[in-house]
Amino acid sequence: MGMYTTLLALHSLIRWLVLVSLVFAILWAYRGWLLRKRYLKFDDTVRHVTATVAHVQLILGIWLYFISPIVTYFLHNFSIAVHERVMRFFGMEHITMMLIGITLITIGSVKAKRKSTDKDKFKTMAIWFTIALLVILSSVPWWFSPLISRPGFRPF
Q1: How many Cα neighbours within 13 Å face the side chain of 103?
Q2: 148 CB contacts (<8 Å, ≥6 apart)?
Q3: How far apart are alpha carbons 17 and 10 in whole angstroms?
Q4: Rounded to two decimals, what is the model's pTM?
Q5: Alpha-carbon distance 23 to 130, whole Å?
Q6: How far apart are CA 141 and CA 55, in angstroms?
């Protein structure tokens, strides 16, 4: 098995870790914010792990981007490929939206860490991570999407 197929399968698998950790962090942050909980070490670990998993996915995604035959075609045939839905999605749209999503997670994580009150830590995490999740969900090539679809899990 080649590096491309291995990275593609790994990127597909880690997507689920990103989504699960992000949804958990969001629910946990809203819980803490709305129920006025104390911000404890576990809460900080949730924030940190969510951002870390997203960054691991980012590294894999960027690596995958530079070795992908779809992206290579897109970059070398831009004037034609930009009008092809699948090529444009993977060559431009997916990476742009995911970079925005992970940037939002990073900003939210850093801002939450620096807040002085427990309420503000939870509130910051809840808001920034929710926006990031919406951006990310809009650009995942879901298996049920009529626009761009890929399998939910890829074999190694």
Answers
A1: 7
A2: 85, 86, 89, 90, 141
A3: 11
A4: 0.92
A5: 8
A6: 19
The CA distances from residue 88 to 54, 84, 94, 97, in Å, are 23, 6, 9, 13
The beta strand positions in the chain, using DSSP E, are none
- Helices vs strands, H then E, count in the chain: 7, 0
Which single residue is written with the structure tokens 């890829």? 154
Please name the residues in contact with 37: beta carbons below 8 A apart, sequence gap of 6 or more.
31, 43, 118, 122
Contact 149, 142 (CB under 8 A): yes
Reported as a single tens digit per residue, the pLDDT across 72-117 is 999 999 999 999 999 999 999 999 999 999 999 999 999 999 999 9
In 3D space, the residue among 139, 151, 136, 131 whose CA is nearest the CA of residue 94 turns out to be: 139
Please report which confidence band the pLDDT of residue 148 belongs to, taking 50, 70 and 90 as the band edges: confident
Pair of tokens at residue 14: 């880690």
Residue 75: its H or E element: helix 69-76
From residue 139, alpha-carbon distances to 12, 42, 98, 118 in Å are 13, 30, 7, 32
Q: CA torsion, points 90, 15, 2, 147, in degrees to nearest 10?
A: -30
